[in-house]
Write a structure and sequence with these properties.
4-stranded mixed beta sheet, 4 strands, about 90 residues, alpha+beta, about 25% strand, about 40% helix
Length: about 90
């Protein structure tokens, strides 16, 4: 399964839960998460999507550290199984 397929699955699953999963790019700042996810109740998450065998780049790992240091919600999801597990936990 390609990363774009996992990302499309995330978008559909979040929508089914009543949320939004907006694609995010930040010109001039490489490594940002793929999606900003807003869930009912006000939870906001920065979500990076990878295949089952995917790996964060050094810039993506730095972005994760920065976001988590600020106390924001960040998750890297590896494949559809992780998407399902994460959505059940939030």
């Amino acid at each position: 399964m390609l990363e774009r397929d996992v990302e499309a699955y995330l978008v559909a699953a979040v929508k089914a839960k009543g949320g939004k999963a907006w694609k995010w790019t930040s010109p001039g700042h490489s490594g940002v998460a793929d999606r900003i996810v807003l869930l009912p109740g006000g939870a906001v998450w920065m979500i990076e999507v990878k295949t089952d065998q995917g790996k964060l780049s050094p810039l993506q790992a730095q972005f994760r550290r920065e976001v988590q240091a600020l106390g924001a919600n960040y998750m890297c999801l590896y494949g559809r199984k992780d998407v399902d597990l994460w959505l059940r936990s939030v």
